[in-house]
Amino acid sequence: MEKHVVVIYPHPDDESFGAAGTISKFREQGVPVTYLCGTLGEMGRNMGSPPFANRETLPEIRKQELEAACQVLDMDLKLLGLRDKTIEYEDRKEIAVKLKAILEDIEPSLVITHYPGHAVHPDHNALGAAAVLAVEMMAADKRPVLWTQAITNTFVQDLGEPDVVQDITAYFDRKIEAIFCHRSQAGGMISKWTENETDEEAAKALMRERFGTERFFTWTADRAAAVE
Amino acid sequence: MKPIEISTVQEKLDSFLHQEVYIHLETTNGAYASHLNEKAYNVGAYARNIKVQFSQAKIVGDKQVHRVGLKLDMGWIYAEGLTHWEMLEDGKLLMAGHDREGRLMVALQISETPFNY
Known about the structure:
- The complex is a heterodimer.
- Chain A is of the alpha/beta class.
- Chain A has one domain (5-226): Rossmann fold (3-Layer(aba) Sandwich), CATH 3.40.50.
- Chain A contains 9 helices and 7 strands.
- In chain A, strands 3-2-1-4-5-7-6 form a 7-stranded mixed β-sheet, sandwiched between helices.
- In chain A, helix 1 packs across helix 6 (172-181), helix 2 packs antiparallel against helix 6 and helix 3 (92-106) crosses helix 4.
- By secondary structure, chain B is mainly β.
- The two termini of chain B are 21 Å apart.
- Chain B has a single domain (2-111), classed as Hypothetical protein YojF (Protein Yojf, Chain: A, Distorted Sandwich), CATH 2.70.180.
- In chain B, strands 1-7-8-9-2-3 form a 6-stranded antiparallel β-sheet, with helices on one face. A 3-stranded antiparallel β-sheet of chain B has the order 4-5-6.
- The mean pLDDT of chain B is 95.
- In chain B, strand 5 (65-72) and strand 6 (75-82) form a beta hairpin.
- In chain B, 11% of the residues lie in helices and 53% in strands.
- The chains are: A alpha/beta, B mainly beta.
- Chain A binds chain B through residues 43, 45-51, 54-56, 59, 83, 85, 120-123, 152-153, 188, 191-192, and chain B through 1, 24, 26, 28, 30-32, 35-36, 38, 44, 46, 84, 86, 88, 92, 94, 96, 98, 101-105, 107, 109, 115-117.
């Protein structure tokens, strides 16, 4: 059994879309989970559907949505205070050092983050790279296992099949509940993923197909060598 | 935010003339544009808390969308595709353009005090 799991993603909602089922599974086993959230998604273009946020009110709204989602998923939250869409322009090592200090404090047995270079959004790639570096910088006897998540359309061709496949069917409803906490963001994305299906059950079936498993690549020296 | 009403917004713009103000200017089609449609390009530009002074400001309507141009001592700032506006309590003028799904495509904001950063 894991001792403590730390999830490192840049945006409020990445945790719900990407790993809510896995997080729920660990929580059910009694494993503590902490989310290190990089930014408040300050630059998101979804303002609610219909819009109820604006560029200046969005950060506080997304912070509250994130807190609600963390409550649903029953995990601790720590904000890293970076700014949306700017992580790749920061000094990677500086972020890694900061992450390393937090990880040394929490002493997790497992860290989950994005697969650098295969995670579509520049913030995903940049924070994933910093998280990988942070873990690599840790003393070998303290180093947690690292699971990385790829989300490009071609990641299976590019990287092969993920070795960690979490069947989250049992936690699907909680995942949907967590996603819907992100009210300013969820509407726009869900309509895309449900292909504008208006029947609720049919829409849910499409989402179940898309979100029924959560998949990760265990980080290895070979994978590290393939990333610059 | 409210749909733009030209005369009201023009009045607000004029209230910022000839003084140091902070500008927020951005345009984006989202970080997932080419992920969702391989023929699309990811395009965006972003500037926050740029200090300027402008001597003229004009809002021009063009069907449902609007353009706003600010004339600086040595240059210009403009934004196209604006649909909505709002005046925050602390005197920040927000103008934004939203698409059919309510997503922000462009924003131009003006304030006497800095925007949060």
